[in-house]
């Protein structure tokens, strides 16, 4: 049971799972058969996570109803959504997993309802969708199209591609379900409606290079670079997630006079609203002001009013500059502390049971302390306890054997060195007695034999 989506970037073939989600598969295959998805946009893309489509108009339009199931199209508004089939055996573990988007039922939040919208995962281990989206198929062809979607330029606020990506046509490869009563299959692909055309930004068949100026291209390049840097910081653990945004109730104040104290700065800004914290950043060693500060307000409106009124104001003969803070260090610090506290509750090192802390030759906390307990790599704890509790005579015998082995090794080395020293001294004395130069020395070790040979010649 398969269907093919012909998109503006290429074809995607999806195999369905009727044995796990028969109702979702029937809904999807019949909507494709009715050409319901034709010209539907990909309106929400999260790089390396997922892309969302299935609303023929798109959620940006006021005419959109969010998408309708096949029973809603044939029956009425009461059948617009159906109960999603959540199978615990199916996980969003790999790229190309296809699942229906869901929403809680109005009268029962534990019941999830689905319509026509669906997700396609763009990366592995999209675990955040487990339990929230109903899996009903997987991509078997068209992974190059998924890579193109994953790398497209996006509107960072909405996640929508700046250049439209649309489903142009749908084809049924295998359909085992019977058609519901009233289903009519169109003879050809329908023409895009006026509502669909009104949601276009840059058309999928439009040449961006001819119509977009250099300033817009530079903006796109910077947004792409910023997204890549954010993903890098997420991977190294400096950000909880790449899409993190700075708080909107914190001001950044710079160009301060070095003599301005925290209390005076807080007093001047407190007339706009309640201040939660006011901190001038200082040098760790000297304590001198670095001439910039962060001010956190309780309400965002007070923060915005202070921003408009206090910029370029003279404080202590110094004109300050005020802007909204772009720092997320506190958010990252709170996230990191919470993660470390969760890991500390688990077994093992770093929250992983199979991971052990690497032992140092000498622990930092034990330096200068007990010589026996200070060297962690010499014996582990079990060995130390075993040796500490062994009988006194057995310990004495073991220490004596260790001393004998070391003494024997030293004696052997001393004997070996002394033997070769005496041998070299003997050879030099012989050469001096017989006036033999070292280069003319015979292989014979007997000086008398050498003298006899010389007389024979």
UniProtKB/TrEMBL annotation:
Its EC number is 5.2.1.8. Residues 361-457 are annotated as: Disordered. InterPro entries: CRIP, Cyclophilin-like_dom_sf, Cyclophilin-type_PPIase_dom, Cyclophilin_PPIL4, Nucleotide-bd_a/b_plait_sf, RBD_domain_sf, RRM_dom. It catalyses: [protein]-peptidylproline (omega=180) = [protein]-peptidylproline (omega=0). Residues 361-370, 379-421, 447-457 have a biased composition (Basic and acidic residues). It is an enzyme of class 5 (isomerase). GO terms for cellular component: nucleus. PROSITE patterns: CSA_PPIASE_2, RRM. GO terms for molecular function: peptidyl-prolyl cis-trans isomerase activity; RNA binding. Residues 249-327 form the RRM domain. PPIases accelerate the folding of proteins. It catalyzes the cis-trans isomerization of proline imidic peptide bonds in oligopeptides. PANTHER family: PEPTIDYL-PROLYL CIS-TRANS ISOMERASE-LIKE 4. This is Peptidyl-prolyl cis-trans isomerase. The lineage of its organism: Eukaryota, Fungi, Dikarya, Ascomycota, Pezizomycotina.
């Amino acid at each position: 049971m398969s269907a093919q989506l012909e998109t503006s970037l290429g074809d995607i073939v999806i195999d369905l799972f009727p044995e796990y989600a028969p109702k979702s598969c029937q809904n999807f295959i019949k909507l494709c058969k009715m050409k319901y998805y034709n010209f539907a946009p990909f309106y929400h893309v999260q790089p390396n996570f997922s892309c969302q489509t299935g609303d023929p108009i798109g959620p940006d339009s006021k005419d959109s109803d969010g998408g309708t199931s096949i029973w809603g199209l044939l029956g009425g508004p009461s059948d617009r959504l159906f109960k999603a089939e959540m199978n615990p055996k199916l996980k969003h573990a790999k790229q190309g997993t296809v699942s229906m988007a869901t929403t809680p039922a109005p009268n029962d939040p534990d019941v999830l309802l689905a319509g026509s919208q669906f997700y396609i995962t763009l990366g592995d281990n999209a675990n955040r969708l487990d339990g929230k989206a109903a899996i009903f198929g997987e991509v078997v062809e068209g992974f190059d199209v998924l890579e193109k979607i994953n790398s497209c330029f996006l509107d960072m606020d909405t996640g929508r591609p700046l250049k439209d990506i649309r489903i142009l046509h749908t084809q049924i490869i295998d359909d085992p379900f019977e058609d519901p009563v009233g289903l009519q299959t169109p003879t050809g692909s329908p023409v895009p409606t006026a509502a669909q055309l009104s949601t276009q930004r840059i058309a999928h068949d439009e040449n961006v290079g001819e119509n977009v100026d250099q300033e817009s291209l530079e903006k796109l390049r910077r947004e792409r670079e910023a997204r890549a840097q954010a993903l890098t910081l997420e991977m190294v653990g400096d950000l909880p997630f790449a899409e993190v945004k700075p708080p909107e109730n914190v001001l950044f104040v710079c160009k301060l006079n070095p003599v301005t104290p925290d209390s005076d700065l807080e007093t001047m800004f407190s007339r706009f609203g309640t201040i939660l914290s006011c901190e001038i950043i200082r040098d760790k060693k000297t304590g001198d002001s670095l001439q910039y500060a962060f001010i956190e307000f309780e309400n965002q409106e007070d923060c915005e009013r202070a921003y408009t009124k206090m910029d370029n104001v003279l404080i202590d003969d110094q004109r300050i500059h005020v802007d909204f803070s772009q720092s997320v260090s506190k958010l990252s610090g709170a996230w990191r502390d919470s993660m470390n506290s969760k890991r500390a509750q688990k077994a093992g090192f770093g929250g992983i049971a199979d991971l052990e802390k690497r032992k140092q030759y000498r622990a930092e906390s034990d330096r200068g302390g007990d010589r026996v307990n200070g060297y962690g790599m010499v014996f582990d704890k079990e060995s130390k306890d075993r040796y500490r509790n062994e009988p006194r005579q057995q310990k004495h015998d073991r220490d004596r054997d260790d001393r004998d082995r070391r003494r024997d090794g030293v004696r052997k080395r001393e004997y070996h060195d002394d033997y070769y020293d005496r041998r070299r001294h003997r050879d030099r004395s012989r050469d001096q007695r017989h006036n033999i130069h070292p280069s003319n020395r015979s292989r014979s070790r007997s000086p008398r034999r050498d003298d006899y040979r010389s007389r024979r010649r």
